[in-house]
Amino acid sequence: MGRKAKLSKEEKIQLCKDREKGMKLSELAIKYDVNSTTVKQCINLYKKHGCSVFEEKVRNSTYTKEFKQKILCEYLSGKSKNEIIIEYNINKTVLNNCIKLYNSNKELTDYDPKGEFYTMKSKKYTKQEKYNITKECIENNKNYKEICKKYYVSYPTIYRWVNNFEKSLEDKLKDNNTSVEAKHEILLKLKDIEIERLKAELEILKKNEEIMDELEKMGR
């Protein structure tokens, strides 16, 4: 006898209630005649979104280019497919198609509001060059588009560099094996980056003030 094709809304909710009462995943799979993956997905969706997540959709969902870019970047930065699917309550096909389009380069342009900066093939950079570009991106309020244009780096690539850089610093600070001196250097590095970021913000504010002053003079 094959597995049950699809659970109803009521069955999914009851499955989650049974789990809350202490039933094991294997017991739930047998009771509702579904595989363990379906059981886990129902439970995770319920925990994240509540009962409403099981409501029947009257029509197929539509997703903006920005949304597809967002989930793709999260995947490229290390988030698992399952985490993204649960987080945004999307069908795995949506994410898989985004990944497929990204890997094919040309087709992905239809999904990107930033055009060529998203699909371009990045140049090869040394470890030090990657660090310098990443640092500059963070200091400039993570203006990915400008960095992509300046260094000819694709959007997902610089997004991943920044994400990995920030995560590595956090991990080193939390690691008990990291020496006090090393942690001190990391904190100084973060401080320098923050100072440069604030300088960039201040420069933008100054330029805005100058523009406003000019507009006021013109209006007199």
From TrEMBL:
Example of a GO biological process term: DNA transposition
Keyword Glycosyltransferase: no
Gene3D superfamilies: Winged helix-like DNA-binding domain superfamily/Winged helix DNA-binding domain
Coiled-coil residue windows: 188-218
Database matches in SUPFAM superfamilies: TrpR-like
Keywords: Coiled coil
Example GO molecular function: sequence-specific DNA binding
Coiled coil recorded as keyword: yes
Domain of life: Bacteria
Protein name: Transposase IS3/IS911 family protein
Source organism of this protein record: Oceanivirga miroungae
